[in-house]
Amino acid sequence: MKTVAIIPAGGSGKRMQEYLSKQYLLLDGIPVLVHTLRIFQKSPEIHEVFLIVPENDIAFALQHIVEKNGISKVSRILKGGRERQDSVRSGINALEDEHHIVIIHDGVRPFITEEILHAVISEAFKERAVTVGVPVKDTVKTVDDNGWVAETLDRNRLWLIQTPQAFTRDIIQKAYEDAYKDHYYGTDDASLVERIGINVKVIHGSYDNIKITTKNDLVLAEVLIKRLKKGMQ
């Protein structure tokens, strides 16, 4: 039985108003995507990585991301789709019987730790469907169309959901099959699993596990990586 990671990295640079797609922007002189892939490369629990990129980027990703940086666990580079869910589906469709645990992680979340990755995989073997997240710190309110507060939600029960998310192959394949049959697009992979009646376990992630989608995120990422490097000295 193998554990495979599906890494969707099909974003553009539109939110950052950059020519280069966000996954290729440099963080401490190295592409964001490389930082992410190195965690999976280093983990002894990950056997393969399916990297999903825009079709026109496949050759670039192979040469400048995978080969140049020695990411040998990337066994397939697959073309992405219009939405993130379409991109992940490319990876789901490439799964084989030998794959037991399937990890799905955003290519632009470079601060995932080996400890969190280990915890997600371990829980997936027991619970079959797992995601990481962090408790909400701020008060959260629902607001009506006119800007009036409709309800103040119980903060103690609210979590911000991140990736990685991990599932047994049969569950995630069934979830994606049903979603596409019903023309349903969810906000994350766990939501597709939830809608087929499978409970999803939430475990603690990290507030540092940010998703880099804006220039402000990239600025914060530079601060985080400097702090990490300082801690290693």
Briefly characterize the structure.
Helices cover 35% and strands 24% of the residues. With 233 residues, it is of the alpha/beta class.
Characterize the structure shown.
This protein is of the alpha/beta class and about 230 residues long. It has one domain (about 1-230): Spore Coat Polysaccharide Biosynthesis Protein SpsA, Chain A. It has 7 helices and 11 strands. The chain has helices at about 30-40, 60-65, 85-95, 115-125, 170-180, 190-195, 215-230; strands spanning about 1-10, 25, 30, 50-55, 75-80, 100-105, 130-135, 140-145, 150, 160-170, 200-205. Strands 5-4-1-6-10-7-11 form a 7-stranded mixed β-sheet, with helices on both faces. Strands 2-3 form a two-stranded antiparallel ribbon. Strand 2 (about 25) and strand 3 form a beta hairpin. About 35% of the residues are buried.
Overall number of domains: 1
Strand segment count: 11
pLDDT < 50 stretches: none
How would you sum up the major sheet? 7 strands, mixed
Radius of gyration: 18 Å
Class from secondary-structure proportions: alpha/beta
CATH fold-level label: Spore Coat Polysaccharide Biosynthesis Protein SpsA, Chain A
Helix content: 25-40%
Strand order of the largest sheet: 5-4-1-6-10-7-11
User: Could you spell the SSE succession in H and E letters?
Assistant: EEEHEHEHEHEEEEHHEH
What is the name of the CATH class?
Alpha Beta
Q: How many alpha or pi helices?
A: 7
The gross shape turns out to be globular
User: From the structure provided, what is the oligomeric state, counting identical versus distinct chains?
Assistant: single chain
Strand content: 15-25%
Shape-level CATH architecture? Alpha-Beta Complex
> Could you report the average pLDDT, rounded to the nearest whole number?
93
Distance between the termini: 38 Å
CATH superfamily: Spore Coat Polysaccharide Biosynthesis Protein SpsA, Chain A
